[in-house]
């Protein structure tokens, strides 16, 4: 008889928390069939702001193209981020699956450096979005990194 159970796995994602100035590995649970991110359990400030914003990232590094997704919140009472002084709240970077763009996968060995690079570049856009003028965010942001 075949096994039809869906196994839960923890996948460490780089979380840039607002309360400490270091990058943490957060492990939201995902399902193998469609790995939807459990972002609401990782990001802080659920009482203040239950809505989570996201930006799609297309990163060209060398000859490769990788897709990521950045999650964050927008509220005036969120604490200042310890890594990026111009934004408030946590920033979470996840890799998008190549087979299914609506799914996320575990980060690979070199992805933590790419995630830090992405978060530093996207922090400017997030700061503009969190400002009182509320500049609109693009649905997808294209970045390139040369070695």
Describe, in plain words, how this protein is organized in 3D:
The strands form 2 sheets. Strands 2, 3, 5, 6, 7, 8 and 9 form a 7-stranded mixed β-sheet that branches. Strands 1-4 form a two-stranded antiparallel ribbon. The chain has one domain. It has helices at 39-42, 111-130, and strands at 8-10, 13-16, 24-26, 29-31, 53-61, 64-72, 91-96, 104-105, 140-145. It has 2 helices and 9 strands. The N and C termini lie far apart (50 Å). Mean pLDDT is 77; it is low at 1-10 and 28-32. It is an alpha+beta fold and 147 residues long.
Features:
alpha+beta, two-stranded antiparallel ribbon, 16% helix, globular
Q: Spans of 5+ residues with little confidence (pLDDT < 50)?
A: 1-10, 28-32
**Count of helix runs:** 2
Average of the residue pLDDT scores = 77
Shape, per Cα inertia axes: globular
Looking at how many chains there are and whether they match, the oligomeric state comes to: single chain
Calculate the terminal CA-CA distance, rounded to whole Å.
50 Å
Number of domain modules = 1
Cα gyration radius (Å): 16 Å
Broad structural category? alpha+beta
Please state roughly what percent of the residues sit in beta strands, choosing from under 5%, 5-15%, 15-25%, 25-35%, 35-45% or over 45%: 25-35%
Largest sheet: 7 strands, mixed
Helix content: 10-25%
Total E-strand runs: 9
N-to-C order of helices and strands: EEEEHEEEEHE
